[in-house]
Amino acid sequence: MTDLLKLSGVHTHIGRYHILQGIDLTVPQGQVTMLLGRNGAGKTTTLRTIMGLWQASSGEISLGSERIERRATPDIARLGVGYVPESMAVFSDLTVKENLVLAARDGPLDDSQLDWIFGFFPALRRFWLSRAGSLSGGQKQMLSIARAIIEPRKLLLIDEPTKGLAPAIVMALIECLKEIKRKGATILLVEQNFFAARELGDNVLVMDNGTIVHRGEMAALAADVPLQERLLGLSLETHQ
Amino acid sequence: MTELAANDPLPKPKRDIAPVLLPVALALLVIPLIGSTSSWLTLTAASLAMGMMIFIMASGLTLVFGLMDVLNFGHGAFIAVGAYVATLVLAPFAASIQADSLWMNLAVLAPAALLSMAVSGALGLVVERVLILPVYGQHLKQILMTTGGLIVAEQTLYALWGPQIIPMPLPASLRGSFILGDVAIAKYRVLAMLIGLAIFIAIQLVLNRSKLGLLIRAGVENREMVEALGYRIRRLFLGVFMTGSALAGLGGVMWALYREQVHASMSDDLTVLIFIVVIIGGLGSIGGCFIGAILVAMVANYGGFLVPKLALVSNILLMVAILMWRPRGLYAVTSR
């Protein structure tokens, strides 16, 4: 399996804070890699650094054969990286349709792709002409993910998509992400919901204090309760 | 939000019309205070014309404020430069301007306005690259840089044109008034209203019916996410800054014709009004800016007529009242 994304010795400073302290990780093509860790471990910073929203102070980031650590965010996005931030960041003043029109960079909206998305998130069809700001939290998350997959992307960076959502919506999101995975997408997914992590993840990376402290298969971590407790401070079973 | 069944009709987006009703309510409220219908109509027409000119000058600033988070205290420089550049065209063709032919007047006036917009827009390019670019995200430095830029621009105008006030007479065909019964409405005010309305409609069409407009509206709300979608927002910033500068230049020409004079510090008083309009309209909101400009002009005109002693503070009082009602302005767009 080839690696689509590779970070080698990546350091990121935000102001005087040294957040990422030499990150080494790989994300294999066509797989879902989970990025787990306690709050403040540096997961969101890792995604933002890959996306170019915060500049790496040193180290290398490669997407396929391209070095991207010095590239601007729009250039990284144009290489085929979709980003779903933790805050969802839907454009509240724009309608659902306008949010998706903007995300479809390469031309008009593809009807078949839209139908596929509506299959998972029927609410988006219902609120097509409503302002995104009037959607519920779950619907905003659906829109945020829909925006990232409205066109084919090489790599999806998704930050805690299930945070604060009702269980039924979490299940719908998991099904959607599974379907995206079946289509061959490569995903780096930050998640605190361990049930979702176990359902979706092929591989897992665990972060602590700005470094990767564990890498392996998700199934192996899911089966090893003592390891979970050592790495995450609790077991997956207690956090479903 | 209540979930709808699959076959329910799409809900119509809710429209917030309370701010739109404000100028209407204000205009109706002052009728009994003014007493005379003809005076009320004249004042209302003057308010609308003045409001449109302020809107033209403020519309660029609100987008620059909202989209770029830039406090441009030097916006007034574009207004003055626009007016001075127009004199370069209008002075040599004074005979055509004073000819009693609308087409001959417009043949000089239109190129003068276009040249003013081009020069102000080009000046905007230089200001953005030289003064603003190094201080993005640093409000205090933006204030210092742009205020310094305004002083340099004013002093340069003094050096080039001298300290005297330059007359800028209205074209002959725009002098006088349309008489409707016992009501007289100045022709130039009607033209100002039409131009302001046309620019408002054009901006609204661009913002709401084009992808460029979507990008600007999205950028006002969340610049970072627009970049994460693959759009180079810096270029958009520059385009908006130049357009805002060009509109300020056009507003400068219109204001100079309204006052029939040009001087280097002509924008000093206007800048206060423009900032009030941008703040009460809601940073980045063109609709809010439009209504805010009309409100400011109405308060200035009605207030000046009814309580002249309050005229100086009337717009400050208006701003206080609006912000107490809606702390982020009439139509809040950004979260800033």
Specify the CATH homologous superfamily of the domain at 3-83 and 156-239 in chain A: P-loop containing nucleotide triphosphate hydrolases
Mean pLDDT of chain A: 90
Classify the fold: give the CATH topology of chain B: ABC transporter involved in vitamin B12 uptake, BtuC
Terminal-residue CA separation of chain B: 25 Å
Gyration radius of chain A, to the nearest Å? 17 Å
Q: How many structurally independent domains of chain B?
A: 1
Just name the CATH architecture of the domain at 3-83 and 156-239 in chain A: 3-Layer(aba) Sandwich
Largest sheet descriptor of chain A? 6 strands, mixed
Q: Care to count the β-strands of chain A?
A: 10
Describe the structure.
The complex is a heterodimer of chains A (240) and B (336). Chain A has 10 helices and 10 strands. In chain A, strand 7, helix 7 and strand 8 form a beta-alpha-beta unit. Chain B is globular, with a radius of gyration of 21 Å. Helix content of chain B is 72%, strand content 4%. A two-stranded antiparallel sheet of chain B has the order 1-4. The longest helix of chain B is centred in the N-terminal third of the chain and has 32 residues. Chain B has 336 residues and is mainly α. Chain B has one domain: ABC transporter involved in vitamin B12 uptake, BtuC (Orthogonal Bundle), CATH 1.10.3470. Chain B: GO terms for molecular function: transmembrane transporter activity. Chain B: One of its GO terms (biological process) is amino acid transport. Chain B: This is Branched-chain amino acid ABC transporter permease.
